[in-house]
Design brief:
The chain contains nine helices and 18 strands. It is of the alpha+beta class. It folds into two domains: about 260 residues, no CATH class; about 70 residues, Sandwich (Immunoglobulin-like), CATH 2.60.40. A four-stranded mixed beta sheet has the order 6-9-8-7, with helices on one face. Strands 15-14-17-18 form a four-stranded antiparallel beta sheet, with no helix packed on it. The chain has a three-stranded antiparallel beta sheet with strand order 1-2-3.
Amino acid sequence: MKIITITICLLGSILLQGQDYYKAAFNHSGDSLKFRLNQIIKNHTEFPYTSSSTDVWDILKETDRDENDSNNVILIYSGRSINAAQEYNSAKGWSREHVWAKSRGDFGTDEGAGTDVHHLRPCDVGVNSTRNNRNFDDCITCREVIDGGFNTGSNTDRNLWTFEPPDEVKGDVARMIFYMVIRYEGEGMEPDLELTEILLDNTDKSHLQGVKSTLLKWHRNDAVSDWERNRNDIIYKDYQKNRNPFIDYPELAEYLWGGSIGKWKAPLIISSVVELKNQPISVYPNPTDVKLNIDAKNFESVEVYDISGRLIIQSALKTIDLEEQPKGLYLLKIKANGEIQEFKVFKE
């Protein structure tokens, strides 16, 4: 029980620190929310692209290290593990992928947008070349992207200038793109980056990246992973001293570009369960468009809260109808077997 108590205290501390970091953005909406977030995460510590001192290569070796082999890094679009020491190596090693293509805004590899590790990831050299500056979108007439003779799960479109990454990193890609839109607002020599629904051709150097609606869908369908959280923490604590807000609070994308309307309230701190009895509870489908189902032994009741913390549904039924509720993030408190467990769900 002592171990559980310590874990709960640490979790509460982490959440409170996160709230302090974003405090200036609470109770703002629209352009004001975007501005406040920009003020929080701008002026980060910048590192060179290539240098005899700490550079992007060095940082990526830590942020994207293979958990099963500390000498390797994981390649973003193929999931392959490769020797981290093989920096490019005459195209036989790995390269540094600008998830926001550096030609979309023409910022190159200059310090700032060009070296911001929040959107840089290790990538196979050939796959990086294939991605080029293609728009992110679901392919229609799909062509598989191959890495070392193996299908990566990525696709290009045979007729359109688009690139579709594997399902397991689609949300990662979207959140990196969202970060860049907030971080770079055209101050000084920085680019002013924005989302678009338009498919840009390969020669277009507009400060735009799409496709917005597809990126939102990917963000909703591929939830934030522990990998992303750990990466965000390393960048913040050890290098750039700034965070990706969309990893910490995924609902921000809805307030800025999605289905949520109104001011971003101070997020709920989810109360931890003091004593767990190993009773599995599942909520599905998540995301949902109308109904949610609860699978729990000795189910007693459920409460549903909106993002502002307002109780909107209280029920003793295992099926929840969200048809009349707006799109966005919701918190479920499920009581079963004498304990309460909490779940975040998304209505799309």
